[in-house]
Amino acid sequence: MLPLRLYIHVMDLQIEDRVAMVAASSKGLGKACALALAREGCRVSICARHSDELERVKDELLDIGPAHATRADVSSPEDLRNWYEETVDALGQVDILVTNTGGPPVKKFMELEDDEWRIGVQSTLLNVVTLSRLVLPGMQSRRWGRIVHLTSLVAKQPIDELTISSTIRSGLSGLTKTMANQFGPDRITVNAILTGHILTDRQYALAERRVHESGLSYDQYFNQAAAEIPLRRLGEPKEIGEVVAFLASERASYITGVSLQVDGGVIKSTW
Ligand SMILES: NC(=O)c1ccc[n+]([C@@H]2O[C@H](COP(=O)([O-])OP(=O)(O)OC[C@H]3O[C@@H](n4cnc5c(N)ncnc54)[C@H](OP(=O)(O)O)[C@@H]3O)[C@@H](O)[C@H]2O)c1
Questions:
Q1: Would 10 be classed as within a structural domain?
Q2: Which DSSP letter does residue 107 get?
Q3: DSSP letter at 99?
Q4: Domain count along the chain
């Protein structure tokens, strides 16, 4: 009889003890990224505007390893600087940055006020610029860094009601590429995730308007949405978190400048 050998091969992402900041992370996609990075051994710092949920997630992270939380609004540069400084004090220099935010208003072009555009630019684009500026000098001096921008499928496939998001998210793909070009020589990779339809509170908020307009029930609405996705279902937050952990890892050392669709195939274009 042949000897029975059991091979168990676990892919080590080699980011144990790396310090990761994950923005807008008390719920949904940000939380899923924070948990995925913590499970890979990272020391994770999170932020959000409301402290109750934030503290709950910090406790979940502390069950896994070292973690920190700061109450911060990503549209405020002062809050972001404070979060960054508290993170460095609590966990050490930042190796990994995941940018994220709440979604801009769900409105068509003529429904938007000037102020909503200004806030949208501040919270969806400028927060990414501010946070990147804070972490990059340290990454450059240590010659290692990973930046992952969470964006949206609307970067490639604009949606009418998501006017601000559609405008800014395609710009973020441009920013991802220019940052990748400029910081590649420092061994820093910069990538974006174009998120598809993922079941989070934000997804329910988007559904609310469409349910209201169409007269469908939530179940009917989600079944209809799933039927348009090649994988025939909406995604789970951890399906974003795990891809982000991979892109943030040593194993993804030759991937940079990519806007990666994690969307169950819903984006129709080939480019
Ligand atoms: N879910 C999807 O299907 C989907 C698809 C494409 C793109 N996206 C984009 O992905 C991002 C995250 O969406 P999600 O589905 O994870 O949303 P979510 O479940 O509503 O969670 C949003 C998280 O961000 C925090 N947040 C919101 N505004 C913030 C601010 N100004 N400063 C700091 N934290 C803030 C929230 O906490 P507080 O409220 O306490 O601040 C919460 O922790 C959004 O930009 C959304 O447009 C989502």
A1: no
A2: B
A3: E
A4: 2
